[in-house]
Write a structure and sequence with these properties.
Order of helices and strands: EEEHHEEEEEEHEEEEE
Number of helices: 3
Low-confidence stretches: 243-253
Number of strands: 14
Shape: globular
Distance between the termini: 30 Å
Helix content: 10-25%
Structural class: alpha+beta
Oligomer: single chain
Mean pLDDT: 82
Length: 253
């Protein structure tokens, strides 16, 4: 760790294009100004930790309760993203998913998240399963860790004018020329035993380029985009689910 002493107005350079300036000192608080390119995400550590924790919660659910929750939500979107059909010659990959059972997907439909996901930095390959839940709900299943899966949905089903701003750096990283080439999804958190408390992480959407098989979870720091956006069910009909032998709770290991 590099330890430096700075006065008000003095700065620190990180690499060639990031500059930290000491703006003000008030007692035990220091105000910093950060100059960085627009494609570099600058986050307070507690925000990054909050998003990692939310991913951990989203990855822990009981699949029967997921079905019960999404069946009670009659959500529709005006336009569904066009899914790319698998190539006939593409090999297949079989995943023994703890949530879905054994599923087989085309290898050219696997999405790679080069940076992983907050809370899961070492898990990169995921398959978006679109035939186990009714649209606009899907399962994002990790290819290499059968115990890791997420329930995701299209955010415009919840907030019709949801339009996250994607910087040029993110576009380059995902290999697209415009936002119309990306599918946007958000993870859902369904607390085990309390499916009526379902929330959506609108603050940290998943951007997916199906043509290149690339994805990235980004952060939108806007007050009206919460990491725990409540999904209200107008006519809830929650019933305790009986214990099913072999039922699993997806708690990542």
């Amino acid at each position: 760790m590099l330890i430096l002493t700075r006065k008000i107005g003095e700065s620190i350079l990180v690499g060639d294009n990031i500059r930290l300036v000491v703006l003000e000192i008030r007692g035990r608080q220091i105000r910093l100004g950060i100059e960085a390119p627009s494609d570099i995400v600058v986050l307070r550590e507690e925000i990054a930790q909050r998003l990692a924790d939310e991913n951990l919660r989203a990855a822990s659910f009981n699949y029967p309760e997921v079905q019960q929750a999404v069946n009670a939500l009659a959500l529709e979107v005006a336009h569904h993203f066009a899914w790319r059909l698998p190539r006939a010659e593409s090999p297949t990959v079989t995943i023994d998913s703890q949530a879905l059972g054994q599923v087989t997907v085309s290898a050219d439909q696997i999405i790679t998240f080069p940076s992983g996901l907050p809370g899961f930095p070492d898990d990169h390959r995921f398959a978006l399963i679109n035939d186990h839940l009714e649209p606009p709900f899907y399962c994002l299943q990790c290819v290499d860790k059968p115990s890791l899966a997420f329930v995701v949905t299209e955010p415009t089903a919840l907030v019709p004018d949801y339009r996250p701003k994607n910087g040029a750096g993110i576009m380059r990283e995902l290999g697209v020329s415009g936002p119309e080439d990306l599918q946007t999804l958000v993870t859902l958190t369904i607390p085990p035993g309390r499916p009526q408390e379902i929330t959506a992480n609108m603050m940290s959407p998943l951007l997916i380029n199906h043509e290149q098989g690339l994805g990235k979870q980004v952060v939108i720091e806007k007050p009206h985009y919460s990491h725990q956006y409540p999904i209200i069910v107008e006519k809830p009909a929650w019933h305790p689910l009986p214990s099913v032998p072999g039922e699993v709770s997806l708690i990542p290991r």
